[in-house]
Specification:
The protein is an alpha/beta fold. The protein has one domain: 3-Layer(aba) Sandwich (Rossmann fold), CATH 3.40.50.620. The protein binds adenosine-5'-diphosphate (ADP).
Length: 161
């Protein structure tokens, strides 16, 4: 059997404990997992792509089969370029399902040999999104327990005047 390489794409602005939960689960079932940071998705991201990658590298150092990379353009082109077989995505609630289904079906149409695999985070992270974390931090609220400590510290620095 060929080793399975999975790509976990997203904006990770910033990486949350929900993302990390998924990375840990993914690293256990795939031979290798690449967390792929999408460049320039949002016009005004809070963290630059380099900062997002730095934080991801720091918090995934414990997983020996996890790698951090950047990509832009069509996801399926990147997945093919990396010779990966799987796209990993997280589903938090029913509300994620419709969008994720649409994306997965379109990606299947574009590249039928690639499988999208969905994983569920621990229940505690099922309402957690990077957007909410950004909003809370920018308004000076506590994000402890929602993001890794290094991210919490960087958010604190960003939010301070
Ligand atoms: P967000 O939706 O938090 O802004 P991304 O766009 O970076 O994050 O999401 C990348 C992938 O991670 C998506 O598949 C998304 O559903 C998943 N994801 C994001 N937050 C969580 C979470 N708390 N639990 C599980 N999966 C998540």
């Amino acid at each position: 059997m060929k080793p399975i390489l999975a790509i976990y794409p997203g904006s990770f602005d910033p990486v949350t404990n929900g993302h990390l939960d998924l990375i840990e689960r993914g690293s256990k079932i795939f031979d290798r997992l690449v967390v792929a940071v999408l460049r320039n998705v949002e016009k005004t991201p809070l963290f630059s792509t380099e900062e997002r990658c730095e934080m991801l590298r720091e918090v995934t150092r414990v997983f020996s089969n996890v790698e951090i990379d950047l990509f832009d353009g069509l996801l399926v082109d990147y997945v093919n370029r990396r010779n990966a077989q799987v796209i990993l995505r997280g589903i938090r609630a029913i509300s994620d399902y419709e969008y994720e289904l649409q994306m997965a079906m379109m990606n299947r149409r574009l590249a039928p040999q690639i499988e999208t695999v969905f994983m569920l985070p621990a229940e505690a992270y099922s309402y957690l999104s990077a957007r909410l974390v950004r909003e809370i931090a920018q308004l000076g609220g506590p994000v402890h327990g929602l993001v890794p400590a290094v991210v919490e510290e960087r958010l604190r620095i960003k939010a301070s005047p």
